[in-house]
Amino acid sequence: MAKVCVITGGGSGMGLEAAKFMPKDKIIVISGRTMSKLENGVNELKALGFEAYAKTCDTSSRESVKELVEFAQSLGEITNVINSAGVSPAMKGTPENILKINALGTVYVNQEFSKVMNAGSVIVDVSSNSAYVLPSFIIPKKAYPLAETNEELFVQKLVKKSKLAKGEYQQKGFAYSLSKNFVVWYAKKCAFEYGLKGIRVVSLSPGLIATDMGNLEKEEGGMLIPFACEERMGKPEELGFALATVADERNGYLAGVDVLCDGGSTNGMKEFKKKKK
Ligand SMILES: NC(=O)c1ccc[n+]([C@@H]2O[C@H](COP(=O)([O-])OP(=O)(O)OC[C@H]3O[C@@H](n4cnc5c(N)ncnc54)[C@H](OP(=O)(O)O)[C@@H]3O)[C@@H](O)[C@H]2O)c1
How many whole angstroms separate alpha carbon 258 and alpha carbon 206? Predict the structure, then answer.
């Protein structure tokens, strides 16, 4: 049976770059909300020799995620899911919007795909090093389990927290950090749950990367760059390679952790460079 790799948010950025590092014997399905982006991505992948398909999907809708699962399943056995779909504070939208896409979207993707995946398969959820910037006392971790039992209350509680920040961008930034902190927590939770079925779950947290999103966030997100080891942004292809290797079946013992792929900026800020400056 053909093996299928599904990449949400695969029409651009690090999701599309990850596809390029997947083994060529996998069928690649890239998804997102904008068909024109997906078509361009599929053309790029086909030119590189991949069998690739585009399927629109809004990960903030469970029904839409179910349709993506059904489409991918019609092509073969789903062995790899890279969940790279996400929105950031500098984009249009509200804190609620950010939480629904980044946090609830991850719940829908993990839950719906894991229902049809078999032992030896893998889900990689893309988080962010923003997950690490908030002091722990401010993170409403007790509200996290609500994402599976009472979505509305979950979003309400996290939106309320994010409104503590002053200014529209700051509130969206707070919601973004909370959404990504949730992704790290949720991927770990799923890893221990799905691990019993042989499905591996890992999250990967990029630092500031020069994708469309990263370039939009450069002004605010760039504050961490001086703390990175090489004091530079990451390249989309570097993150694509990192995602593809984490998603590689040969990495079978990498599970239940977050891979912080941020050029060292989080550690630089917290431990090292801060002391030097
Ligand atoms: N670039 C950075 O500096 C950075 C840093 C840390 C973490 N990240 C995370 O890395 C991931 C990939 O981002 P990127 O940097 O590669 O940026 P990107 O090029 O903007 O990729 C994000 C993709 O997600 C898709 N998307 C957005 N909302 C969606 C939804 N509701 N349903 C399905 N797809 C959706 C977008 O396509 P449509 O708009 O067409 O749907 C887009 O193709 C995101 O989760 C982001 O939060 C990025």
Answer: 10
Ligand 1, atom 19, residue with closest C-alpha: 13
Superfamily grouping for domain 3-276: NAD(P)-binding Rossmann-like Domain (3.40.50.720)
Give the H or E element holding residue 56.
Answer: strand 51-56
| Per-residue model confidence (pLDDT) at position 219 | 86
Q: Which amino acid is it at 56?
A: T
Residues with CB under 6 A from ligand 1: 8-9, 11-15, 32-34, 37, 57-60, 84-88, 101, 105, 126, 128, 206, 208-209, 211-214, 217
Taking only the tens place, the pLDDT of each residue in 244-275 is: 999 999 999 999 999 999 999 999 998 887 66
Give me the residue spans of the domains in the chain.
3-276
Give pLDDT, residue 275: 62
Two tokens, residue 195: 């691990």
pLDDT tens figures, 151-192: 999 999 999 999 999 999 999 999 999 999 999 999 999 999
Distance, in Å, from the CA atom of 180 to the CA atom of 4, rounded to the nearest integer, reads 26
Helix axes 236-246, 13-20, angle to 10 degrees: 60
**105: its two tokens:** 């979207």
- Residue 260 half-sphere exposure toward CB, CA atoms < 13 A: 13
- Specify the length of the chain in residues: 277
